[in-house]
Amino acid sequence: MNNNNRIDLYIFLGLLAFTIPWIIKIQTQTQYSLKTDSIKVDSSLIKSIIRGKQLFRTESCYSCHKVDKRICFGPRLGKILDRRSKDFLVKFIKNEDSLVKAKHPDVIALKEEYKWANGLHNKKHLTNGQINDIINYLQLFD
């Protein structure tokens, strides 16, 4: 490498060493922050989703259901409101047995497809609000 090439290389590296920190500083200045004035976030919905996620885990829903994958013991729950009404989901989660006894066609079809025993969804101890929290959590995956 001749002297002219070395000088050019040193100049380039010097400029690069100065330019990179300068670009990073510009990109991280607060004057480029997001405008959130027009974004309205319902804090009660966020709290509901957080509670729903916790309930989904503590009630062992995740052991059979996944929200984004078909490979599981029960139906995939992503986009569940495209397939079932919220009213149906509340009834089913709270008292599956009553729907089985009434021979609800959707429940019978699900039982046959996934070959599960009665009572796995008898969550009578959950309030309708808690079940709604779970449904709100599942809507994140629609």
Automatic annotation (TrEMBL):
Molecular function, one GO term: metal ion binding
Any single Pfam family the record assigns to this protein = Cytochrom_C
- Which InterPro entries does the record cross-reference, listed alphabetically? Cyt_c-like_dom, Cyt_c-like_dom_sf
Please provide the record's keywords in A-Z order: Heme, Iron, Membrane, Metal-binding, Transmembrane, Transmembrane helix
Give the superkingdom in one word: Bacteria
Record-linked PROSITE patterns:
CYTC
This protein's name: Cytochrome c domain-containing protein
From which organism does this entry originate?
Answer: Tenacibaculum holothuriorum
The organism that produces this protein has a lineage beginning with: Bacteria, Pseudomonadati, Bacteroidota, Flavobacteriia, Flavobacteriales
